[in-house]
Amino acid sequence: MKVHFEGESREMHSLWMEGTEIKFIDQRLLPHKLEIFSAKNVKDVAFAIKDMVVRGAPAIGAAAALGMAQAKIQKEDRNKVANILRETRPTAQDLFTALDFMLKKIEEGADPKEAAKDYIDNILNKCRKIGEHGETLIKDDQRILTHCNAGALATVDYGTALSPIRLAHRGGKNIFVFVDETRPRLQGARLTAWELLNEGIPHALIADNAAGDFMQRGEIDMVIVGADRITQNGDFANKIGTYEKAVLAYENHIPFYVAAPITTFDFSLANGSAIPIEERSQEEVLKIGSELIAPSGTKARNPAFDVTFAKYVTGYITETGVFKAEEISSLKSHAIR
Predict the structure, then answer these.
(1) What is the average pLDDT across 250-255?
(2) Of the listed 228, 235, 266, 306, which one is catalytic?
């Protein structure tokens, strides 16, 4: 992705490995500061995932792969490290896909850094192909709504939901993006808008509760979102607020697409009712930054994700093409093993 860093424009991944340290763009500080967080051991990696230094299902998977490589180099017990990392974020399927992949490769005697590199290269290739398939769905002069951040920050590079948008823009299509702010952590306002600004893609930030009005007035032509876990029947978990956008799109006859690599599909779950939903600290709702925005003593609920039912989804944009819910079973043979 394009970023402005240390006085110049450059291409940068959201995370990478230098020696035995794992480097992350610290997403907690964006858009006002671009700083690098260094994880020197599994404790640091677990903190980075749990505290959302890194976030987005594919990027969490990449962090886990690198964390396992780091642990092997440092002669840590791989099963103990895997268990520590499994406990960081319960909803993102890519975390578990990456850990299982790395455990298998290490057991087979593979070089851990090479195995992690292969996993991440695979993700990058998948996200590029998601962009290529998704870009064909976008017509010139279309206005696209997206929710949360499913860009390069969330996937190492390219993005899932933002990958088709990036490629459409680079291909010369005249497009406009509506960016949901995405309360309570404001990933749309802080991260998606930052990525689009760096890429030069025309966009406007809107309050989460304004999306329905723009749909009703005919100002949104399609919706593309990412996913943290997709089940056999096409139900999926994504950032809280996705469900209501899907229902609104359905009621207003607007195409609603989910963009995700096959690593995000959980073929062990029949439907969305079985997806574990992380509930985070109530402080994220009660405060913006360090400032309390509710009366002292008020309690809050803070589910980080919601589940959207397959009936609201027009199609799933994957690295192998665009599929309907009833076609998902055909993707199982493409899963990373």
Answers:
(1) 98
(2) 228
